[in-house]
Amino acid sequence: MNLSNDTDISRPSTSASANLGIVNSTSNNNGNNSNIKTPSNDFVRKLFGILERCEYPDIVRWTEKGESFVVLDTGKFTTQILPNHFKHSNFASFVRQLNKYDFHKVKKSPEERQNSQYGELSWEFRHPYFTIHNEEALDNIKRKTTVQKKIMLDDSTVLLKPNSGSQPGMEEKAGANLILGNAVTKDKFNLLKRRVDRLQKDLDSAKEESYNAKLEFQKLNSKYNTVVESLFTFKTVNDNLMNNFNILCSVLNNRGIDLPPHIYEDPSLKQNPGTHQQAQAQAQVAAAAATQATNSTSNSTTAIARCKTRLLTRLIML
């Protein structure tokens, strides 16, 4: 009996000393931790190192001002950078990780995206402490903490609050039961994940194909406009030639030269006044030249006849 009492009395002293030791060690740890500077997450530093070393300038790099970084080619970023540095190949997961560290995607209008020097399919991200050559500021980038966790089931929302209510732990148990009741197996989750990855790749390839198709359409549209302009020019020249031909035929017909009526049309229906006057003047000049040539020919014939008469008269006199 005495031994049991002694043992009962000695136990509180042991627990008290242990508690004192725990308190002292905790206070010492707190004092030491206050002087230790916690580094940023490896994810942020890895991304910063890739950008600083400029390992993939054609895929990802700093912008000109150095206040943000831009992913130029999401396809190559997914296949070359993510597996080698981040141990996965899902661009959507990379974006979600950036969001957890309070990175924001730079929003641009369709016109700005089309005229962007980094390409229409580029992704630009920004954080106030994530800038070029500023490694010390990375310590200010911390993972966002969630105050409340939400579980969405159908149209209802369950909030998990660890320290609320008069019965602690009830809401956590209810939330855990809801999660377990609607959880999926690991194989099904992996299958869904592969489907999402495949859909993301298909979406990226579809965006690229759409961009290439847009470029081809612009080229074809330019060629089409060139052909249409050439056709209009050819039609104008052809109309002018036909109208000039019709005017010439009309003038010749008026001069008494018989022409088949089906080879020309009435020029007054299609010819402009200025062009008609010019063609008529040219026809008059041609007619005058023809008349002059005819007169000169008749004069030559008369002179020859006179010479023949004189020769015959002299022969008779001899």
Give a written overview of the molecule.
With 318 residues, the chain is an alpha+beta fold. Among the domains are: 37-145, Orthogonal Bundle (Arc Repressor Mutant, subunit A); 147-186, no CATH class; 252-317, no CATH class. 63% of the residues lie in helices and 7% in strands. The chain contains 8 helices and 6 strands. The strands form 2 sheets. Strands 1-2-4-3 form a 4-stranded antiparallel beta sheet, with helices on one face. A two-stranded antiparallel sheet has the order 5-6. Strand 5 (149-153) and strand 6 form a beta hairpin. The chain is rod-shaped and about 155 Å long. The model is unreliable at 1-38, 147-166 and 267-271 (pLDDT under 50).
> Number of helical runs?
8
The main pleated sheet reads as: 4 strands, antiparallel
What share of the residues lie within helices?
55-70%
Query: Unreliable segments (pLDDT under 50, ≥5 consecutive)?
Result: 1-38, 147-166, 267-271
Distance between the first and last residues' Cα: 198 Å
C-alpha Rg, in Å? Answer: 49 Å
Determine the strand fraction and express it as a percent band.
5-15%
Structural class: alpha+beta
> For the residues shown, what is the average pLDDT?
74
CATH class (first level) name of one domain:
Mainly Alpha
CATH-defined superfamily of one domain:
Winged helix-like DNA-binding domain superfamily/Winged helix DNA-binding domain
Sheet with the most strands: spatial strand order: 1-2-4-3
Subcellular location: Nucleus
GO biological process, one term: phosphorelay signal transduction system
Protein name: Transcription factor SKN7
GO molecular function: DNA-binding transcription factor activity; sequence-specific DNA binding
